[in-house]
């Protein structure tokens, strides 16, 4: 086996920057030994204080792990935000919000105190969490805990179990929580069965997780309720956004104000030694280290969060997104037409009215500020007849952005401007978000491929300005651009070696990799040329040639399909070579025409590159 070069070996050992950062945190903060393991629940005191694991999950589903990231521990109070979100979805916001407040208490997590309305201050303290569990218990009865366990499992992306020893220990020593339970019963916040509610609550806190699990759970919160690893929409964006709000103000108990001021990431801690932090639209972090500070938060976990926030400047109120970056390209069809090869009459009409079709390619998040900027940019130039918004680089659409899109489209409809959307699949969540607000609009069309959208808009311009596109028209060899300049005798000799072929709609005419032994002159109908991955290179109508690269290449480099019933002159390459030998002038003319056609294609491709790099 050949030994690897030093550079190759170093490359294979290299780590992504975020993983190196987590490694550094693990190494640096392992030396931190302050704090103490929770012992008010006896079973928790058995945790090894040396354990230290960190995990970070990105919103594209990648999970980084260092240290003891797979060591199981009980979720404890980190269950609270997830159960609150579950209650919002199961029971409705009105029911939950009528029983539980959302204000910070400033008290320790286990304070036996209610607000001025005799309700829990918020769902992150024990009183609010027990009330939240009680609401689910009232609705689901004996199935309440299983509902909670399944929801936690969906957040984690795997089936979670209960640590029975910790559950038993919590149940035996949970008198303070019982006092809270009876206080809630006295004030009609929960039902009569306090013991049943507390049993579910104790089990909920004893669910086993790892640092990796809580990183994925946090990332699901950061991803508007979509688990980035499994792709499942666990709970609604409404429930998630309200949960993150309460985590921001109250997730770290009587340290919450300091936390959000210095670190600025919604978070939740648990006395088992875990901390989860969810930075919306960015990432989820999970850490495990059993030693706690006086507030009941993991000492090392706090340091990891502080380091992550300060090192990468991740405070959620220090965002620098610029709406102007939402537009990656803005042009009319004169600068970048469709890949459809047009006849002279069509080209003349489109050249005279190229500004009637405006194309705006967008990127990133379609937010309120991004849509506002695009609408003002659109209004800064003369009114077109068609505006194509390409969304294939758009990663998400906010509800505010979608609503402003609808309002902008309504204004365009009033001005007789047709909107065309491209790059978004009808089965996608982005489509659902957009259609929620635009379904009733009559001026909106959609095509998945941008080129198809541009081609359709071009066709409308041709029709509106007196042109025609007759796919059933039959053309002769004399009308072929590749054969321009050939005399009548030369064309007659060429026709004698051609065979007319007929193709049904959808038929595959040429296949990538096959031997290139003939070329074709389209006589009627239309065909399209695609790469093997489905990317459309061109749409050809009667009067155009295809397979002409056989003059330069020995194998086919693209597929050709019939868009509709079509006929073509097929010319065997061997016979064509004999024709060229017999007619050297015609041969020279054909190769010049081919060079011009290839140059025209290159000019179009370069124009597209210029558009994308100059916007």
UniProtKB/TrEMBL annotation:
Residues 482-597 form the Cyclic nucleotide-binding domain. GO terms for biological process: glutamate biosynthetic process; L-glutamine catabolic process. Its EC number is 3.5.1.2. It is an enzyme of class 3 (hydrolase). Signal peptide: none annotated. It catalyses: L-glutamine + H2O = L-glutamate + NH4(+). Keywords: Acetylation, Hydrolase. GO terms for molecular function: glutaminase activity. Residues 347-425 form the STAS domain. Substrate binds at residues 77, 126, 170, 177, 201, 253, 271. Pfam families: cNMP_binding, Glutaminase, STAS. HAMAP family: Glutaminase. Homotetramer. Belongs to the glutaminase family. PANTHER family: GLUTAMINASE. This is Glutaminase. It comes from Bradyrhizobium shewense. The lineage of its organism: Bacteria, Pseudomonadati, Pseudomonadota, Alphaproteobacteria, Hyphomicrobiales. The gene is glsA.
């Amino acid at each position: 086996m050949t030994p690897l070069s030093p550079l190759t070996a170093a490359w294979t050992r290299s780590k992504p920057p975020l993983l190196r950062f987590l490694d550094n945190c693990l190494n640096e903060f392992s030396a931190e030994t302050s704090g103490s393991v929770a012992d008010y629940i006896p079973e928790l005191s058995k945790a090894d204080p040396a354990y230290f694991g960190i995990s970070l999950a990105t919103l594209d589903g990648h999970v980084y792990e260092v240290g003891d990231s797979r060591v199981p521990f009980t979720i404890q109070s980190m269950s609270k935000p997830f159960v609150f979100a579950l209650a919002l979805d199961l029971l409705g916001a009105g029911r939950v919000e009528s029983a539980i407040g959302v204000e910070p208490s400033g008290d320790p997590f286990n304070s036996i105190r209610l607000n001025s309305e005799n309700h829990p201050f918020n769902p992150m303290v024990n009183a609010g969490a027990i009330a939240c569990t009680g609401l689910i218990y009232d609705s689901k009865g004996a199935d309440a805990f299983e509902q909670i366990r399944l929801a936690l499992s969906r957040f984690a992306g795997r089936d979670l179990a209960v640590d029975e020893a910790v559950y038993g220990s919590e149940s035996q020593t949970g008198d303070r929580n019982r006092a809270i339970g009876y206080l809630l019963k006295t004030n009609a916040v929960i039902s009569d069965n306090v013991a049943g509610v507390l049993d579910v609550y104790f089990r909920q806190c004893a669910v086993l997780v790892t640092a990796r699990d809580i990183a994925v759970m946090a990332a699901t919160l950061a991803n508007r309720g979509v688990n980035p690893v499994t792709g499942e929409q666990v709970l609604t964006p409404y429930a998630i956004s309200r949960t993150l709000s309460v985590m921001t103000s109250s997730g770290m108990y009587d340290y919450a104000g300091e936390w959000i001021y210095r670190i600025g990431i919604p978070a939740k801690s648990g006395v088992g030694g875990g901390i989860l932090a969810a930075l919306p639209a960015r990432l989820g972090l999970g850490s495990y280290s059993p030693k706690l500070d006086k507030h009941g938060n993991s000492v090392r976990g706090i340091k990891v969060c502080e380091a992550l926030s300060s090192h990468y400047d991740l405070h959620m109120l220090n965002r620098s997104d610029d709406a102007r970056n939402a537009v990656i390209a803005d042009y009319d069809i004169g600068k970048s037409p469709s890949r459809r090869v047009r006849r002279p009459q069509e080209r003349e009409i489109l050249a005279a009215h190229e500004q009637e079709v405006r194309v705006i390619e967008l990127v990133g998040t379609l937010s309120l500020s991004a849509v506002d900027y695009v609408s003002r940019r659109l209004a800064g130039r003369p009114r077109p007849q068609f505006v194509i918004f390409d969304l294939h680089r758009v990663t998400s659409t906010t509800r505010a952005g979608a609503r402003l899109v609808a309002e902008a489209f309504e204004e365009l409809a009033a001005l007789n401007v047709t909107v065309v959307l491209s790059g978004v699949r009808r089965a996608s969540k982005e489509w659902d978000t957009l259609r929620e607000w635009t379904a009733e609009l009559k001026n909106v069309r959609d095509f998945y491929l941008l080129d198809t959208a541009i081609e359709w808009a071009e066709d409308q311009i041709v029709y509106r300005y007196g042109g025609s596109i007759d796919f059933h028209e039959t053309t002769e060899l004399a009308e072929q651009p590749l054969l321009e300049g050939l005399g009548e005798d030369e064309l007659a000799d060429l026709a004698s070696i051609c065979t007319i072929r007929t193709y049904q709609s959808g038929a595959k005419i040429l296949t990538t990799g096959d031997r290139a032994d003939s070329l074709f002159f389209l006589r009627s109908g239309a065909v399209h040329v695609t790469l093997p991955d489905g990317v459309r290179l061109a749409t050809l109508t009667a009067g155009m040639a295809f397979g002409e690269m056989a003059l330069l290449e020995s194998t086919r480099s693209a597929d050709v399909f019939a868009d509709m019933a079509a006929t073509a002159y097929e010319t065997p390459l061997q016979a064509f070579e004999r024709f060229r030998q017999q007619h050297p002038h015609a041969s020279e003319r054909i190769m010049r025409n081919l060079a011009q056609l290839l140059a025209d294609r290159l000019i179009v491709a370069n124009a597209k590159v210029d558009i994308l790099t100059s916007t």
